[in-house]
Amino acid sequence: MTWLRGGLKLAAMTSLPPAGSLSRIRIGSAPDSWGVWFPDDPRQVPWRRFLDEVAGSGYEWIELGPYGYLPTDPAVLAEETGRRGLKVSAGTVFTGLHHGPEVWDATWAHVSDIAALTQAMGGSHLVVIPAFWRDDKTGRVLEPGTLTAGQWRNLTTGTERLGREVRERYGLEIVVHPHADTHIDSEENVTRFLDATDSSAVSLCLDTGHYAYCGGDSVKLIETYGERIGYLHLKQVDPAVLAEVRAEEIPFGPAVARGVMCEPPSGVPELEPVLAAAQRLGVDLFAIVEQDMYPCDPDKPLPIARRTRAYLRSCGA
């Protein structure tokens, strides 16, 4: 085990696959890698440019990103993606299910539109991101960073219900995304959540960058909870910037603006061992590149995307 700056630990690289051998891993990218966090923001790359550039970078799969950024008319979106050779793997929803049954109706109203579009586009997954406990722009504390026992029960039972209803109504699998500044973040909280939820209803979207940001070891998680890993987001953290973020208690949004998420392979965790561990699970998995870069110069994402795709090919993906 190698220890790096900022207290992160990284499993030793062993049994890495030769190029082209990650046959169960389907690589894609997302609007996030083009600095897109919101449905409409003048600082973001226009959606047509994103589609042109993600296809031109060699990716076949994409996520929908924030609902409303890409066209929400399935016929329009199918035409725009199809002529570029792109396919949709997943949509993304935000939830606050730890607040209990009283938020279910509002949650479902948000989820149903996105699930319907994902289904219409042939997607198979819905990435579920828990609510932030502090504002990701201002750092204002919105609620305690630790859940009560009752709130944990609300979170786990509500997520199970969401998983079952999304599958029944839309034929999609939910994958819960551990995320910085949410209540599902560290190894302790991720494993607590997995242990308390039904594996038939709830799987995990392991985001390698967020998990490292919160001190977790992605390879260890895959090897320990492999049957719960339903989806991957690939990103890396700059350990030096992360050390500053921790020391100054900077919230996630400003940390991203400072460059805490960096271009592979310059950060941690190393992605070759993560991909090799995922391949050993023996199941088909999406691995979607997400390099948080909001806000960023509109000319910055394309060269990074091309280099990242070439790097992942060198890893065998």
UniProtKB/TrEMBL annotation:
Q: Which GO terms describe its molecular function?
A: isomerase activity
Annotated keywords: Isomerase
State if Iron is listed as a keyword: no
Q: Which residues form the Xylose isomerase-like TIM barrel domain?
A: 51-314
Q: What domain of life does the UniProt record list for this protein's source?
A: Bacteria
The keyword Glycoprotein appears for this protein: no
Quote the protein name from its UniProt record.
Sugar phosphate isomerase/epimerase
What lineage is this protein's organism placed in?
Bacteria, Bacillati, Actinomycetota, Actinomycetes, Kitasatosporales
